[in-house]
Design a protein that fits this description.
It is a single chain. By secondary structure, the protein is an alpha/beta fold. The protein has three domains: 185 residues, 3-Layer(aba) Sandwich (Rossmann fold); 35 residues, no CATH class; 91 residues. It is built from 16 helices and nine strands. The strands form three sheets. A five-stranded parallel β-sheet has the order 2-5-8-1-9, with helices on both faces. The protein has a two-stranded antiparallel sheet with strand order 3-4. Helix 2 packs across helix 4, helix 11 packs across helix 13 and helix 12 packs across helix 13. It starts with 10 loop residues before the first helix and ends with a helix. Bound molecules: adenosine-5'-triphosphate and magnesium ion. The site of magnesium ion (MG) has 4 residues, from helix 4.
């Protein structure tokens, strides 16, 4: 075992559990676990880079600590800075399946945890009645009619990566419910009993900070603010994700996107927009970014009319010279 162990809190034992399929765990938990190879933030950075995710030191350290401390990682940041992609990269880098819970306004436990397949229950009920047999209530609330939603799937599938995406879109009640599930790593289904994760899933929560997430949830998590990358890393990300794009064009686009971020825009562009912009220019056969090609492709990087107007008024030539 090469995993770094931390004193006093039994992390070595916990991390050790990640290194082998859980005893008595479900048969599908046979993924090749690569967590044991990750003994430092540098190892984590290398693992993420190997799946084309280029983290800065802060992200690599936060992800490493989340892994060894078995604590959820709460990533906040501007749109398009790689929060969701981090969870996907972790699952690929660690060789773990990923379960995604996409949060939205009004999401509740039946959408996040489990529900009963009502139409199938009804069909079953009719079929049993038609055969003249007695209906056993227990039959209707059995595994056969259970719809496992992402949280339950993750508890059963663990070790896995559980992405709770855009938690800021959910409401307070859901947050409290999620807190409970994350704290216990266990759910109780009255009709079926308790379901406990063999090991806690590696949880990544993301938020665009459209509202403040409560302290109680934050307290349970490791927090990391995901910033826009610096110029060199952004150029490298374009190179990694779009290897067919000319290196000079990649640098010019990254520079221009940075210039756009320095203007007071309704929606400053993220890495996603840098990639789209480079892709659009490449699709038009451009190998350099000039005023004309920038004007023709502005819709790939700016998504509000007010922002496009503002940039056009300020002058694209000035922007490209920054
Ligand atoms: N460090 C990085 N390395 C490689 N690709 C990156 C990195 N950061 C961002 N990307 C790429 O940028 C794009 C946007 O990333 P992602 O969707 O994860 O952003 P986000 O922070 O989740 O945005 P939103 O808040 O809008 O959901 C993706 O294509 C992703 O792969
Ligand atoms: Mg996202």
């Amino acid at each position: 075992m090469t995993v770094q162990t931390l004193p006093d809190r039994g992390h070595d034992r916990l991390v050790g559990q990640w290194g082998r399929p859980p005893r008595g765990g479900p048969a599908h938990s046979t993924h090749t676990l690569r967590c044991v190879d990750i003994a430092s933030p540098a190892d984590m950075a290398a693992a993420l880079r190997s799946v084309s995710y280029l983290p800065d030191d802060g992200v690599a350290t936060a992800a490493f600590l989340a892994l060894v401390m078995q604590r959820p990682l709460f990533c906040e940041g501007e749109p398009g800075t790689g929060k969701t992609a981090l969870a996907t990269a972790l699952s690929q880098a660690l060789g773990l399946p990923m379960v995604r819970l996409q949060c939205h306004e009004g999401i509740d436990a039946s959408q996040a945890l489990y529900d009963w397949d009502f139409p199938r229950q009804l069909l079953h009920l009719r079929a049993v009645e038609a055969s003249g047999a007695d209906v056993q209530e227990g039959e209707l609330y059995s595994e056969r009619f259970l719809l496992a939603r992402p949280l339950l799937q993750a508890l059963r599938l663990a070790p896995c990566v559980l992405l709770v995406d855009e938690i800021d879109r959910a409401d307070d009640e859901f947050e409290a419910f999620l807190l409970e599930v994350l704290a216990e790593n266990r759910v109780s289904i009255p009709e079926l009993g308790e379901i406990t994760a063999a090991v806690p899933p590696l949880v990544v929560l993301t938020s665009n900070r459209t509202r403040e997430v409560h302290d109680a949830l934050k307290r349970r998590c490791l927090y990391h603010w995901v910033d826009h990358p610096d110029l060199e890393r952004e150029v490298a990300i374009v190179g990694e994700r779009l290897p067919h794009v000319n290196a000079e064009l990649a640098r010019q686009v990254a520079l221009a996107t940075r210039a756009l971020r320095s203007i007071d825009l309704l929606k400053p562009p993220g890495v996603a927009e840098t990639l789209d912009w480079a892709c659009a220019l490449h699709a038009l056969g451009r190998t350099t970014l000039d005023v004309q090609s920038a004007a023709a492709t502005l819709g790939a990087v700016l998504k509000y009319r007010e922002d496009s107007d503002k940039v056009t008024q300020l002058g694209l030539d000035g922007l490209l010279l920054r």
